[in-house]
Amino acid sequence: MNVTEIYEGMVGMYREGNVSGNGSMATLNSPSPMNKIISIFSIVILFITMISLGCKMEISKIKAHVLKPRGIAIALLAQFGIMPLTAFCLAKMLEMDPMRAVTVLVCGCCPGGSLSNIFTLAIKGDMNLSIVMTTCSSFAALGLMPLLLYIYCQNFPGLENAVPYGGIMTALALTLVPCTIGILINHYKPNYSAIVTKVGLSILAVASTILLILAAIAVKDVLWMALTADIVGTAALMPLIGFLLGYVMSVMCRLNAQCSRTISMETGCQNIQLCFSILKVAFPPEVIGPMYFFPLIYIIFQSMEALLLALCFRCYQKFKAPAEDAKVYQNVDVKQEEEKQP
């Protein structure tokens, strides 16, 4: 039994020209060549992203954090504990239909994304921990993501045996291979790492733009159906909850402020490229419908909220630093006065 079989009644309605009034299972009325092109661009974007991530990673840094795994262990627990549970709770509270629920769960169970590295830099976090965490979570997702989806889908009628784990495993494997290639390039040919990353980012920008245009054309008639209150609300709340609970959990585990900020970013920032690829590879277009654009809505809120937190942190530092400097100078003056006294 698979997702397509569960929703074959809906697909039949669509082929007959009828779509349910609530639009929750609207479909992609796009020709087969268009779907193939979108799939190819999705894979290309994921491949380039993970190679670029691998080129930033050094085996020595991985070893250092593996030998002292406390930070990684807490970060992995936050990533695969907080976000999937948040996605599940929101889907349950908002009483989402199965297709919406599984889309939100896929996004929640994804590993951390490379965008977290940028935001970690913005909040002056631990870059080594951020990059190692992104890499380790990508490898850990190969086992944890299918397991978490299986556990949480048991609570949604019709999804117990419907999640296409084969397609998800394929998409996850596509992340590990290029990431490993990038690590090997950085280890054996470090001079080429910067070139590969720069070229990769240029190709990524062009490919992402083309993908968004093609996908928008493919769903131009049903795109608005994804912009419902429950979906937009979920996309706004998920990253915010991840940022806040990731930081709280790190503080409770007595990590320093720099590591806590890093884990906060890693928890809230999901691998949206991977989420896009999984939804495209694992679910037929007539089933996923406009929910294919949920990761796009998510990344918009994710980026806005991360930028807002980074701005708040920078403002805090700006106003805190003069106060600390004044306190230091005051202590120095007091000490000098004491030294002058006989």
TrEMBL record:
The lineage of its organism: Eukaryota, Metazoa, Chordata, Craniata, Vertebrata. Belongs to the bile acid:sodium symporter (BASS) (TC 2.A.28) family. InterPro entries: BilAc:Na_symport/Acr3, Bilac:Na_transpt, Na+/solute_symporter_sf. As a major transporter of conjugated bile salts from plasma into the hepatocyte, it plays a key role in the enterohepatic circulation of bile salts necessary for the solubilization and absorption of dietary fat and fat-soluble vitamins. It is strictly dependent on the extracellular presence of sodium. It exhibits broad substrate specificity and transports various bile acids, such as taurocholate, cholate, as well as non-bile acid organic compounds, such as estrone sulfate. It comes from the Eukaryota. It is a multi-pass membrane protein. This is Hepatic sodium/bile acid cotransporter. GO terms for cellular component: plasma membrane. Keywords: Cell membrane, Glycoprotein, Ion transport, Lipid transport, Membrane, Sodium, Sodium transport, Symport, Transmembrane, Transmembrane helix, Transport. The chain crosses the membrane at residues 37-59, 71-94, 100-122, 129-152, 164-187, 199-219, 231-251, 263-283. Pfam families: SBF. GO terms for molecular function: bile acid:sodium symporter activity. It is found in: Cell membrane. It catalyses: taurohyocholate(out) + 2 Na(+)(out) = taurohyocholate(in) + 2 Na(+)(in); tauro-beta-muricholate(out) + 2 Na(+)(out) = tauro-beta-muricholate(in) + 2 Na(+)(in); taurohyodeoxycholate(out) + 2 Na(+)(out) = taurohyodeoxycholate(in) + 2 Na(+)(in); taurodeoxycholate(out) + 2 Na(+)(out) = taurodeoxycholate(in) + 2 Na(+)(in). Its main location: membrane.
